Amino acid sequence: MHVTQIFIFAITANEVQLQSIAVATMAFKCNWYEEYNKEIRQMILMIILRAQKPAVLTIGPYKPMTTQTAVMVMKAAYSYATMMMHSFK
């Protein structure tokens, strides 16, 4: 896997998380409590309630995939590669 691929995954996962947080805000800003009938208000309220917890893409069962995680992976890979290069000299 290339370095750019790791960061593309991380940026995409970060964007998914940010946009999922924005869902509740945008649903609330549509004036749902004034303009719609009771059934639609209940559906929008359910969207708002379910969108309170952001969607997070994870690296297997371990950690959420973020740009910070990608940087940690790159630092660890560099450290391991450096250690291996020095151990074979």
UniProtKB/TrEMBL annotation:
Primary residence: membrane
InterPro entries cross-referenced by the UniProt entry: 7tm6_olfct_rcpt
Topology with respect to the bilayer: Multi-pass membrane protein
TM regions (residue ranges): none
Recorded GO CC terms: plasma membrane
Keywords, alphabetical: Cell membrane, Membrane, Olfaction, Receptor, Sensory transduction, Transducer, Transmembrane, Transmembrane helix
Gene Ontology terms for molecular function: odorant binding; olfactory receptor activity
Subcellular location: Cell membrane
GO terms under biological process: signal transduction
Protein name as catalogued: Odorant receptor Or2-like
Species for this entry: Sitophilus oryzae (Rice weevil)
Name of encoding gene: LOC115883960
